[in-house]
């Protein structure tokens, strides 16, 4: 007599094929770079890149970033936590307008995770449509073109992370789904 696996056993096997979520951005290495006034790319860089390990305390306190030739930097504390990038401005100023004027945050060591989304936190001093946010798998970009800042102005960015499937678990998942499909077809034929 041939036994077919139960749907519960197949579901359990599939669940173990997916990696567990890690602890957010904590422990990763973050590099912050300022860009003005067109794109967040090397020709438009206006700060010296600075790096820190995400953890307790403020990763980039006001005054710790260095502006390049002729650019003014509006000082802010930049704190990165498990799921948030928080900028609190410490002086008055206005960001120049343009295609992009803000910061790129590049993360290394995300421990099997990738950035899956960003959103402006309601605790921010600006409305969602006033701040430009974008991301890729290991970077977050904040565009504050044309915004005015006062001491205490806050831009808080929520960062969503998702696990990156590893090749072996992904193959196990595909094999499990194929087995489940074959089992379902077989049981459909035996009931007919």
Textual characterization of the structure:
It contains two helices and eleven strands; from the N terminus they run αβββββββββββα. Helix 1 runs antiparallel to helix 2 (167-191). The chain has a domain at 29-162. The protein is 18% helix and 34% strand. The protein has a five-stranded antiparallel beta sheet, with no helix packed on it. A four-stranded antiparallel beta sheet has the order 3-4-11-7, with no helix packed on it. A two-stranded antiparallel ribbon has the order 5-10. Residues 1-21 have low confidence and may be disordered. With 192 residues, the protein is α+β, with helices and mostly antiparallel strands. Residues 1-22 form the signal peptide. It comes from Rubrivivax gelatinosus (Rhodocyclus gelatinosus).
Q: How far apart are the first and last residues' alpha carbons, in Å? A: 20 Å
Mean pLDDT: 84
What oligomerization state is this entry in? single chain
Q: Biggest sheet: strands side by side, in what order?
A: 2-1-6-9-8
Major sheet characteristics: 5 strands, antiparallel
Protein structure class: alpha+beta
- Quickly count the helices: 2
The H/E string reads: HEEEEEEEEEEEH
Share of β-strand residues: 25-35%
Low-confidence stretches: 1-21
Could you say which overall geometry the principal axes of the C-alpha atoms support? elongated
């Amino acid at each position: 007599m041939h036994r077919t696996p139960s749907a519960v056993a197949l579901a359990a096997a599939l669940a173990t094929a997916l990696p567990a979520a890690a602890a957010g951005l904590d422990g990763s290495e973050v590099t912050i770079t300022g860009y003005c006034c067109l794109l967040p790319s090397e020709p438009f860089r206006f700060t010296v890149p600075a790096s820190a390990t995400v953890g307790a305390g403020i990763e980039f306190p006001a005054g710790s970033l260095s502006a390049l030739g002729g650019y003014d930097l509006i000082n802010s504390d930049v704190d990165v936590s498990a799921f948030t990038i928080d900028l609190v401005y410490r002086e008055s100023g206005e960001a120049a307008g343009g295609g992009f004027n803000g910061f790129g945050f590049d993360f290394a060591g995300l421990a099997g995770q990738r950035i899956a989304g960003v959103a402006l936190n309601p605790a921010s001093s600006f409305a969602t449509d006033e701040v430009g946010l974008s991301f890729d798998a290991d970077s977050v970009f904040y565009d504050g073109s044309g915004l005015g800042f006062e001491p205490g102005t806050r831009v808080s960015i929520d960062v969503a992370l998702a696990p990156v499937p590893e090749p072996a678990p992904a193959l196990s998942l595909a094999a499990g789904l194929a087995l489940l499909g074959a089992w379902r077809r077989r049981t459909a034929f035996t009931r007919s």
